[in-house]
Every structure is written in C-alpha cells, then in structure tokens.
Amino acid sequence: MNDATYPCRPGTIAIDSAAGHADLVSALADAGFIVLSINAGAAFPMDNALPYGDGFESSTTGAFDVRAQLVDLHLAALAVANVGGPNAFGPPLAGRADLSRVGLVGHSRGGQGMVEAALRSHVDFTVRGLFLIAPTNFYDQTPPDLPLHVLLGSCDGDVWNLSGAASYDAARGGRTTPISQTLVVGANHNWHSTAWGPATRWGFDDAPTSSSCRAGQVGRLRPTSARQRLVLRTLAKAFFRRHLGGAPPSAVLGETWLDSSVVGVATVPSYEGSAVDRLDIDRPAQRSLTALGTAVRGRGLALGYRTLAPPSLGAAPPAPWSPHRLSLRTVRWNAPGGSVSYPLASFDASSYDAVSFRIAADTWVRRGAVSFNVVLRDTDGGRRSVRVRIPAQLPNAGAYRKAVLGTVRIPLSRFGGVDLASLRVLELRAVGPRGAALLADVAFVRLP
What we know:
Order of helices and strands: HHHEHEEHEHEEEEEEEEEEEEE
Number of strands: 17
Helix content: 10-25%
Structural class: alpha+beta
Shape: globular
Number of helices: 6
CATH class of the largest domain: Alpha Beta
Distance between the termini: 46 Å
Low-confidence stretches: none
CATH architecture of the largest domain: 3-Layer(aba) Sandwich
CATH superfamily of the largest domain: Alpha/Beta hydrolase fold, catalytic domain
Strand order of the largest sheet: 1-2-3-4-6-5
CATH topology of the largest domain: Rossmann fold
Radius of gyration: 23 Å
C-alpha cells in the first residue's frame, strides 16, 4: 500500500492483509461457519494521519471507528443477502446466515477495531464472541461482557508491550461470560498472517533479537510461521465452536483443563469464568486486605504490593516493564520455608471444583522458574499440599523479557483428607532457597 494515499495509486502494490488469513478463513468455514475476511486498507491513512486521495480529512482517533464501520457495512450487506436481497459476496447466501450469532476476529490494530465494533449497538446482527490476535489497545478500552479470547506472542516485536494482556485484565471481574488468554511462547507478531510471513517480499520476522527470540531459534524455542498459524487456527476453531456453535467446554480454552501447550507449542494460558462461578479470595485491591476483608500475611519472605500499567507502545522498553494493567502481590524470598497465607475462617468450599490463581516468575528479579506448595488446612487440623512449578518465560533476559501472568488451577479433589466444608487457611509456601513471583486473582472456582 502506498504510504501517502488510499486507494493506492496505479502502479503501486496494495498489501492484501485480508487474504493473509485465508487459512484461518478456510478452517472456520470447514467448521461450519460463514466467514468474511474484510479488507481494512481504508483505515491505513487514519492509522498514520496521512491524507486520503480524495482529500478526506484523516485523524488517528478515527482509525478504529473506520474498522468498526467496515464491520457494520459488511454484516449489513450479509443481512440483506441472507433474506434474498442483492448479494455482493458471490456464493448463495439466502437463509444461510444466523446473524444472531456473530463472532469477530481481529489482528493487531484490527483487534482493537473489533473491540470498538463489539462495544457498539447493531441493528442487523448480534456479536456473541470476540477473538483478538496480538491486539493493540491504545485507548485502554474494556471489552464488553462477551466471551473473549486474547492470543499473544512472547516474541512479538511489533506490539511488544503485549497490550492485549491489559485488555484481558480490564475484562476480569463481574462478568456473565468467560474470558481466556493464550501466550504462545516464541510467537512473533507478523506470522499470524501469511501476508506478512516469510514467503512474501514485504514480510519479515519482527521478533526481538534476544537469545531466545532470535531467528536462529525458529523451529527450536520458537514455532515456525506455519506452526504459529496452526496454533491460531486451533484456538479460533475451539473458541467459535464453543461460543457460537454450542460445543462442550474446551480444554484448549482452559475451561476443563489448563494445557501448557497447543499443537506441541509451549503456551501460558489464563482463564476466568463467570462471576457466579468463582469466589475471590484475593483480587488485590488493597495492600494488606484480601477480597474477604481478612489480612493477607507473608511469613519468611517479602510480600509486596504493586499496581502495574503497560508502557506506551511508541516508547522504548523501560526496565522493568509489564504488559499488565492491574494490582498484584510481589513475592520474593532468599531462604526456604516462607509462605503467603489467606485466612478463610471456616469457609465452605465444598460446592467449588478448584482453587485458582494467576502467577508468573518475576524474571526482572530472578531469571529462573519458581515452585510453591499450595496448602489447604481445615479447622480440625487436616492438611494437604500440592506442588506447582511455574517456568520462567522466554525471553527471560534483556529489554523484552516477559513476566506474563498465567492461571494455575488445582482440583480440590487433590486435597484428600481435608474437610472442604470447613477450611481454615489457604497457603502458598515457597520452595527452594530463593525466587521471585507475581501473584493475583486467588479464588475458588466452579468449572463449566
């Protein structure tokens, strides 16, 4: 696309980003969906405050409005074709589309545009799911109360601040619908699309040049372009089958289990169900109090409190930085045996399925993995612990190192011998001589 105008001048090359997701379109179509991949080139001048060829005024604040309008226009045209009216799409569509069940997918700025579209009221269709691929989030928008999945790459060198993590964070709490997130270890920004993949003249590997993200790690610590797109297709099909097609709960989305890989590629999953299916123990909103109003205690370690906000995408990576927009607890220890404890005061957890929390090894403090024993004690002295290990994320050094929270969920059935109807305390006991972690969103949860 020519950088000075839209439509492109004769003789210039237009990069068809819409065609770059043809394999995703085909996979979703094969799964029974009607799929439109929209050319959003008209938004490009808005993205960059460049003039349009016909003199139309450009403004970067309108870039995502343009994308939302394109969604409206295309789905309004599909609604017309669906009732037997003029069909600009080609294949017969009369009576084929259920416009009460629409899902939106967007990559990069397109992801933010789909959030903008989902936040609006629509006459011709109803949005039922939102799937964001490495999205921008320039305006700190909160996605609406719809099923949401955010896909991130740990080697994203374009939207390097992983601003989609802040979108997930903003969507937490008080919802009727589930949200999920997948950090794909080694994935970059461009290779979710063949239009920007290694086979095109303008495609390039945008990953940082750190030891774990450099080009030489492709096929080793990093997925190939084809494998990265397979992860995307796998997640997107599962998401839309579940939330548009009514399929059973999905492990790959974190509903029934939290897998640490998708099609053989290492991932860090996050999941939060509806508010009625969880009891928050600690969604840190106060420095010293839990969500139950009791005092959270740190013994034998340094327990801190921090409010995070992602850095501006236009700035160079500061040190340290985080993609998250939330408050959490920091846990650091230089000797074994320390613990974080949450008094429960005879809490009855028998109607819940698991204990859940979000955690990351804090690679800005120490590069290595961390382990905890998760302990439940009842009021009669019964005690059982389960060990969990949280690996350090890659890259774990340099300016682009990551500490992205992932969900750990332990079935309560693993705490045999403890009276779940009368719990006294929940503890996380640090394992090993030293370590550092970030901790948030401790809860008892019911699974779908």
